[in-house]
C-alpha cells in the first residue's frame, strides 16, 4: 500500500481544525489536508442554531452554522484539501496516520506535522454512576440538541436536566420553546458550571429552577424513564437523608461535562494533563511529541468558540514555523507552569524561555466564583506580574498575557506559578 505524504495533516474539521488549516496556509504551507469524520465541515457548530457566537472574533453576533460557514468559505477560498467521512483510526509518534473512508477505503498518510483538533465528547451516565434502571429517555444534552435541531425529532415532554453545563442550559431554553416542560436544572456543585449569560437567558428568563447542591439519586422506569429522585448534597457531595423528592419526567438530559477526545493523542504517545484531560503543550501549542500540535477542545474545554478560533490560528502559525524550521522548540530554558491556589489548571503547562519569545498567553480556569480578585504571577518566589479581575467564575475561561519585559524576569530553572487572591 502506498503511503500518501503531506506537510500538514489537520485531524478534525470543526472550528479548531479549519482555523488552524487556514492560518497555516496563510503562513505559506500548501500541502495541507483536513480529515473530518462527519459528512460536512463545521463540527458541533452545525447543531448550535442559537446565536451568541462571533462577538469577540468577528465583532458580530452569529449562529453556530453562520460562524462555521465563515471558516468553510475561508477553507474553500484557499483550496485546502478536505476529506469528509474520513475516520482516523490511529496516529503514532512518527506521524503515520491510519484512516478509513467509504470513498478510499483504508489508507496510510505520513505527515511532517499534525494538528490535533478532534474536539471533545460528553460525559455519559456511565461516567457519573447514577443508580437506577436503564430505560429509554436518558441521553446527553448534545445528543438531544442534534435530535431536535438537525433531525427534527422530539426527545420528550417532561424534562429534567442533570448538570449546568452550557449545552444543558441552552437545551433548557430550546426545549421550552418547543413546548416541553423543563422541571429543573439540577447541579451537584454549589455554583453553576455554565456562562452567566446562559443562566440568565436560558433558565431565569424561562422560570426554570436551578437547584444547586442537588443531584439525581435514582432513575425510575422500565421501557421509558418515569421519574427521577432528587436530593440535596452535603459538602462532600453525599445525598442528605430526608431531602429526597420524586419528580415525574419522561426525559433526563445529562450536561455533566465535556472530555477532550484524547484517544489519538494517547496513541501517539502525547503526554496528557490529568486536570484538563487533554495534551500538555508548550507555549507554541506543540505537544510532547515533536511536530504534533493541539488546539481547541481537544486541548482544554473552552467556553467560547471565539477563543477556539484564536488559539487554533496560533497552532496553525506554530505548525508552519515548525515546518519551515523558523523556530527551535527545544531551545531556551525549560520552565514549568504551576496552577496555584484558586486555579484549576494552566495552558500551556510549560514553555521554552527563548530570547525571541515576545509574549506568553496563559489560559486558566478558577476553582470558585469570586469578586475583586488579583492573579499573582511568581518566579522563584518573586512576584513578577499582577493582574486584576472584577469577577471570576469556573464557567468562564481567563487569559493573561506576559510581555517580553516580564518574561525576562523569569528565573532559569524556577517554576512559573500563578495563584488567585482577594484584592484588598
Structural account:
The protein has about 425 residues and is an alpha/beta fold. It has 3 domains: about 1-120 and about 260-330, FAD/NAD(P)-binding domain; about 125-255, FAD/NAD(P)-binding domain (3-Layer(bba) Sandwich), CATH 3.50.50.60; about 330-424, Immunoglobulin-like (Sandwich), CATH 2.60.40. The protein contains 8 helices and 25 strands. The protein has helices at about 15-25, 65-75, 140-150, 165-175, 195-205, 265, 305-325, 405; strands spanning about 5-10, 30-35, 80-85, 85-90, 95-100, 105-115, 120, 140, 160, 180-185, 210, 215-220, 225-230, 245-250, 250-255, 260, 290-295, 335-340, 345, 350-355, 360-365, 370-380, 380-390, 400-405, 415-420. Strands 1, 2, 3, 4, 5, 6 and 17 form a 7-stranded mixed beta sheet that branches. A 5-stranded parallel beta sheet has the order 8-15-9-10-11. A 5-stranded mixed beta sheet has the order 20-18-25-22-23, with no helix packed on it. Strand 2 (about 30-35), helix 2 (about 65-75) and strand 3 (about 80-85) form a beta-alpha-beta unit. The longest helix is centred in the C-terminal third of the chain and has 19 residues, at about 305-325. It is globular and about 65 Å long. The mean pLDDT is about 95.
The CATH C-level name of the largest domain is: Alpha Beta
The major beta sheet can be summarized as: 7 strands, mixed
The termini sit apart by: 67 Å
Give the percentage of residues in beta strands: 25-35%
What is the name of the CATH superfamily of the largest domain?
FAD/NAD(P)-binding domain
How many separate helices?
8
Q: Could you estimate the helical fraction of the residues in percent?
A: 10-25%
- Overall mean pLDDT stands at 94
Structural class: alpha/beta
Shape: globular
Low-confidence stretches: none
How many E-type strands? 25
Radius of gyration: 22 Å
The number of distinct structural domains comes to: 3
CATH architecture of the largest domain: 3-Layer(bba) Sandwich
CATH structural fold name of the largest domain: FAD/NAD(P)-binding domain
